[in-house]
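Support request from a user on the community tier.

User writes: "When I paste my structure tokens into the form, the page sometimes reloads and wipes my input. The last time it worked, I copied everything first. Here is what I submitted, just in case something in the input itself triggers the reload:"
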């Protein structure tokens, strides 16, 4: 891989370095890897000018909201880039969801507005680019749904085959539909996401297939662009908080890594705090954080937010490192809190899938706890599109989620009526 400035892989645990000539996801010590570059070769002011110029590009690879920042993604020749012009997502005023959370300045970055409907596209454009450069013909991932939808799309765009390992039982319908439609070879395994994750790593190693889970350090590089773009949209004025859902814990790791690079380059002069929000039934990081105990996987993770139904997240070390750097916090929220927050995000006219709404549920909880101050500026990351999981929406609004202990607190029930004017009048 030819990068403009010196770039290498470095172990998060022991610091061992590897050059980019070989495919690697782990250190010989078992630790996971970071992409590192010589930041002293970059000038923050010049980067800001370059990125500002690219903001107005109408076409081409650098019009992507990831590759706009390519100096801090992977600075490879443009012809190698595999892109669907991802990113450039909106940053909304949270409206009703802001009132609900008790915040005056609450913004929602809608990553569900990416090409395949989730933030995964930001990591996937970078991962698929690396796959192409390494000459991969086949790529694979384990997924709770969004990664597989994204990977299948980027594989199709760039002429690679894709193999998807999904857990048995529920993955949201919209996501499964996408994976099949984009032509991903889909294997439903008897086990949960954590089992699928362990299996796909073995399969990739033994069968020489390129692994595109977020253990792949290039995925993390692409996802850093969420933070870059938010700050760019805020004219580099730093919010007090980012609030972000946590599952496999790649995305918050990417956010903190990217912010740290901006800080080291002097592009931002304040460190925002990050709050990672997990679902109560799948909250290993939150347990560890609150109880001050060593990391321990959750055996049978469960949550309606199927995207983050993960008990043994691969990136917990990176996540923890980032949280320490930014004086972050970890919290978990109940099923009811997730779905009520989702009802507010949806009723605000914005809409997002359940896991995404951990951001809003978590912000509300942290405001109620006095951790976030109502006057502080908070950016919540909405990670996936409302259409990904229609079952959760309909179940909530028809109030049929009782067996999961969830009430349709803010339900908007459809009514069945006779086809007459009288019936309409009565219904209204
Ligand atoms: N939100 C959504 C909508 C997701 O799909 C995921 C992860 C997350 C949040 C959590 O992000 O894993 O980086 O902490 N989905 C993965 C998948 C696991 O397979 O699609 P994370």
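"...and here is what came back when it finally went through:"
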């Amino acid at each position: 891989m030819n990068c403009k400035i010196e770039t290498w892989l470095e172990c998060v645990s022991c610091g061992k370095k590897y050059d980019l000539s070989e495919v690697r996801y782990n250190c010989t010590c078992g630790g996971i890897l970071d992409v590192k570059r010589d930041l002293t070769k970059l000038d923050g002011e010049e980067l800001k000018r370059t990125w500002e110029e690219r903001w107005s590009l109408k076409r081409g690879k650098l019009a992507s909201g990831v590759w706009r920042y390519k100096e801090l993604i992977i600075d490879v020749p443009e012809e190698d880039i595999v892109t669907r012009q991802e990113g450039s997502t909106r940053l909304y005023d949270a409206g009703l969801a802001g009132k609900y959370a008790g915040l005056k300045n609450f913004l929602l970055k809608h990553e569900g507005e990416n090409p395949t409907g989730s933030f995964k596209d930001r990591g996937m454009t970078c991962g698929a680019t690396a796959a192409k450069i390494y000459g991969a013909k086949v790529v694979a991932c384990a997924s709770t749904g969004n990664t597989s939808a994204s990977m299948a799309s980027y594989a199709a765009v760039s002429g690679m085959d894709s193999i998807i390992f999904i857990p048995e039982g529920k993955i949201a319908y919209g996501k499964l539909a996408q994976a099949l439609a984009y032509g991903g070879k889909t294997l439903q395994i008897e086990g949960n996401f954590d089992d699928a994750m362990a299996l796909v790593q073995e399969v990739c190693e033994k069968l020489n297939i390129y692994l595109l889970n977020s253990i792949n350090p290039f995925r993390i590089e692409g996802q850093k662009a969420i933070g870059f773009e938010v700050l760019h949209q805020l004219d580099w004025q730093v919010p007090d908080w980012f609030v972000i859902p946590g599952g496999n814990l790649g995305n918050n790791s990417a956010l903190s890594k990217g912010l740290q690079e901006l800080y080291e380059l002097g592009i931002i002069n304040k460190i925002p705090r990050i709050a990672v929000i997990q679902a109560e039934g799948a909250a290993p990081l939150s347990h560890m954080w609150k109880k001050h105990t060593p990391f321990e996987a959750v055996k049978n993770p469960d949550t309606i937010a199927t995207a983050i139904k993960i008990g043994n997240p691969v990136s917990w070390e990176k996540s923890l490192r980032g949280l320490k750097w930014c004086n972050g916090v970890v919290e978990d929220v109940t099923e009811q809190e997730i779905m009520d927050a989702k009802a507010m995000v949806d009723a605000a006219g914005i809409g997002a899938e359940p896991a995404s709404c951990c951001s809003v549920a978590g912000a509300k909880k942290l405001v109620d706890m006095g951790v976030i101050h109502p006057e502080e500026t908070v950016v919540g990351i909405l990670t996936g599109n409302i259409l990904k999981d229609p079952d959760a929406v309909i179940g909530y609004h028809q109030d049929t989620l009782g067996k999961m202990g969830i009430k349709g607190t803010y339900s908007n029930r459809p009514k069945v009526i006779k086809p007459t004017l009288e019936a309409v009048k009565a219904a209204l």
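Agent notes: The reload is a front-end session timeout and is unrelated to the input. Residues 118, 120, 143-147, 214, 245-251, 307-308, 353, 355-356, 383-384 surround F0G (CB under 6 Å). The chain has a mean pLDDT of 97. Escalated to web team.
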